[in-house]
């Protein structure tokens, strides 16, 4: 899930493990809530957040520290990174000493001991922060006892599950100076001109993908009305594409409302269609034997929606799916995707129920695809830091060589019934991929080759079976890595998420191509069928 990956990224970027360090649990949760508020993300509760941080920093311990009657729970063995902006929000120095908000008023300090950074950026494990090897003396206080503090017992090593590193927030980039700068994600780039440079050319969309108008309408009055509608509908989409091409995402709500809810008493009726005309055009005939062409018109509208939504994603908003894009643009797209279902529902108040179901299913597929593709883009950017770091890759190879693949195959064979030679071929090819000089440049091709090897046809059932088997095998491998406490478990977890999402992306495109439809249409039709089924069930119960 994008929100979870985004939160894990934030934890890795702003916190690190260190010996003899405590951080108030409430302070860390407060940091998290501020982060969610800044990025318009719904925060999880404190208990769920505690589970999340423990899944990232394995072995993290909790202690109750402070004066009697004023003690608080602390996470022991973690601190804010000295280079993080969060260090300025609290009285947290670059040494190990931590001062909570309530403790600072009573001058209660925790004894600092020499720091040893257990982990750093995935991209540069050899990096050392300033003051990382020096201890910070405890500040003097008149309220503090005169006897020296005893340092706490040395904690057990804490191994973080490092899932992602922000390239831009590190003073030393992951890629070398000779690498293409386009590979680096400008996480903090929010200037409109910068964001616009990541979009496709909106002027090319309508001339290249606008569907042909059907010529099988045999009723003169309907033909005349439909010809007017198709012209207006193209202008309507021109407004939408122009707005999105200028990052005016919220304008889409008004554009939809003005088009579908035009009052009957409006002026300039020659240039617009009123709500009564549109309702008549999109309402199904009550007489099933009628030769009315209205259902065909509604069908053309839905087909046009799928075509345009698909083009808006692939040619405008995400023209290069795996190219890193700014965090601000990702969030704008996801906020847009979150709202469009309700916007369309509001715009179609008063229309035929069947037409509304089809329209909402199409925009629902649009919304779902935007969220999935931005998640895939985010995972690709996160994986870059791992797959371009030779030390991290070598650790992954070492851990992978310890996995008992024979046992994995024995467990999976009776469930998946796959060819042993094919499974071994996938295993060996993945190991060879990791040994490449730059596996990040080849992982997408590897996924495509695996799909060609295992999926001989584009049948939906075959694709479903392959994805099930892929997930089952990879879960067994991850289980083996977990039981062996593999140091690179976090890296493998990230790579698995990326591969799962990209293989699903490849499968849906293959199935869509085989059926002559867009991926959005395949998804949207499935959604509309589920909606109809739910409506039928509710009708029977009533």
TrEMBL record:
PROSITE patterns: RFX_DBD. The keyword Amino-acid biosynthesis does not apply. Residues 7-82 form the RFX-type winged-helix domain. Residues 128-158 are annotated as: Disordered. Its main location: nucleus. It is found in: Nucleus. Coiled coil: none annotated. The keyword Nucleus applies. It holds the Pfam family RFX_DNA_binding. InterPro entries: DNA-bd_RFX (IPR003150), RFX-like (IPR039779), RFX1-4/6/8-like_BCD (IPR057321), WH-like_DNA-bd_sf (IPR036388), WH_DNA-bd_sf (IPR036390). Keywords: DNA-binding, Nucleus, Transcription, Transcription regulation. GO terms for molecular function: DNA-binding transcription factor activity, RNA polymerase II-specific; RNA polymerase II cis-regulatory region sequence-specific DNA binding. GO terms for cellular component: nucleus. SUPFAM superfamilies: Winged helix' DNA-binding domain. This is RFX-type winged-helix domain-containing protein. It comes from Oppiella nova.
